[in-house]
Amino acid sequence: MMRLALPKGRNLGVTLSALRAAGIGLAGLEENGRRLRGSFEVDALEVLLLKDWDVPLYVEYGVADFGVVGSDVLAERDGDVLVPARLSEGGCRLSLIGPEGSLPAAGSQVRLATKYPGLARRLVASRSWGAEIVKLSGSVELGPLLQLSDVALDIVQTGTTLRENQLVELEVVEDVYPCLIVNRASYQRYRSRINELVRRLEEQELVLL
């Protein structure tokens, strides 16, 4: 029985929809449920429900054979996993946010709040301005709102939270999508089954090519 790591939070709903469209029912597993682990004999899968940031670790170390996680987390974690597909649904964007007109000027030095210090360092290295990076665990929008920082780097989906707090997207840094990730040893063991899953997702036009 293969073990699948699924992310609690924003990517769980679209992941379950995609898997079910590809023929993996996971009957009884609900988006808002409290289960952390379950076996699904019909699908020959054991499922772990984890925080986004933990999914790549469980897959990289072989505790889970495969999983789904946002490309933002993958880029920050930089783990050693295979990425055979990106889901076409559930996309959002990683953006610089702040008060309108506050995009740092060339040569300036600012404070940048984010959950993604690694990505933020790479971003700043490619810009004409510098930044002190402040790592936050949540409510990153409060950084520029309460003057803890000048700008923030965070995920934006609809932009509603920004509008309600008089903030704007200053720059879209990159698009973010849920990614199917696979442990390298597990791919050798379950190659045909994983390839079949990717093929079914492609048939349903649920992956980006």
Your description of this structure?
By secondary structure, the protein is an alpha/beta fold. It is 29% helix and 33% strand. The longest helix is centred in the C-terminal third of the chain and has 13 residues, at 191-203. It is elongated and about 55 Å long.
Give a quick precis of the structure:
The chain has 209 residues and is an alpha/beta fold. The protein has helices at residues 12-21, 55-60, 71-77, 117-125, 142-145, 160-164, 184-189, 191-203, and strands at 2-8, 37-40, 45-51, 66-70, 82-87, 92-98, 109-114, 130-135, 151-156, 168-176, 178-182, 207-208.
List keywords for this structure.
209 residues; alpha/beta; 7-stranded mixed beta sheet; 5-stranded mixed beta sheet; 8 helices
What's the pLDDT, averaged over the residues?
A: 94
Biggest beta-sheet profile: 7 strands, mixed
> How many DSSP-defined strands?
12
CA-based gyration radius = 19 Å
What strand order characterises the main sheet?
Answer: 2-3-1-4-11-5-12
Tell me the β content.
25-35%
Specify the overall morphology.
elongated
Helical segment tally? 8
What structural class do the secondary elements suggest? alpha/beta
Unreliable sequence segments: none
The rounded distance between the terminal residues' Cα atoms is 28 Å
- What is the H/E string? EHEEHEHEEEHEHEHEEHHE
How much helicity do the residues have?
25-40%
